[in-house]
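Teaching soon. Invent one.


***
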Amino acid sequence: FPGHGDTNVDSHYDLPLLPFTRQRLDSLEEYPFREAINAGLSGVMVAHMSIPALDSSKNRPSTLSRPIITGVLKDSLRFKGLVVSDAMEMKGVTKFFPNGDADVQAFIAGNDIIELSENTERAIKLVRKAIRKHLVTKEEFEMRVKKILAAKYWAGLNNYRNVATNNVVASINRPEARQLVQQLSDAAVTLLKGNTTSLRLNQTHKTAIVAIGTDKITLFQQELARWYPNSMLYVVGKATPVNELNAMLASLKKYEQVYVGIYDTRTRPQSKLDYNLDIKFLIAQLAAQPNTVMSVFANAYTIAGLPGIEKSGALMVCYQNNDELQRSAAKIITGQMKPM
């Protein structure tokens, strides 16, 4: 809360800025929260973001903002559930509020639960001190405690039993859950450039299907190869030497059409791909060829670091590297589904 989708800074490393107007925030960022609250939402996590339209205090993260947490979330949106901070060890909050100041400011702002403090014992002492100084009223403090206790009773923690871990992975990844993830993925893929004609190339033509940023054949390639029988699969790893890149580029010029998948294989993807200049140049050269379709299985902001990619015949952003989104992209290209 109140919306982390349109930022290009990872709050694990710095404080993101949300520079939008109050009207924009109200109509877009806050919309899903408003709908969820009206439907009975029981918990909200607050992000570390600087949002001048909601709190003009310089470099104050939303997690530490009473105007945002108490004023907007609790009072304006009438949220009565648990308010939980994002991790309090992240640079987005500790950069400007070090040495435990972030913990006590988060408590004063209205958070019910402070997650992952840098130093829990220190945080408890500072919160107790804030209560003694009446920085939060006794009534408000007791109300927050009661909310947490009520949640614990709801979860059955008053009669705690160890959770059975047998088959827990299968339980989490049950067919219904996988089906929902695929449904969400199908609705997420965005066509930035092109149309159904420029996406669905001739099935009889000689086709190259290229994966960049990975060391193995991908599901996206395998799905497309089923529809393009006259195809060859190529893999370009991040460490592929330049002489091999040049040789592959020369080979690809023999194909009538090229599909390219661009992947971020890191455990924690970021807004910039960890590709060297040679790989980025290869992407630009491929995009400049006729009948090239690019699909980016990475953070949408990575596209800004790939100059020339906009010259491709069609460009889709698929947001992250997983099987579901690769299936979705293949379904759109092969006409089984319409793009967004």
In short: The chain has a mean pLDDT of 94. The chain has two domains: 22-159, 177-333.
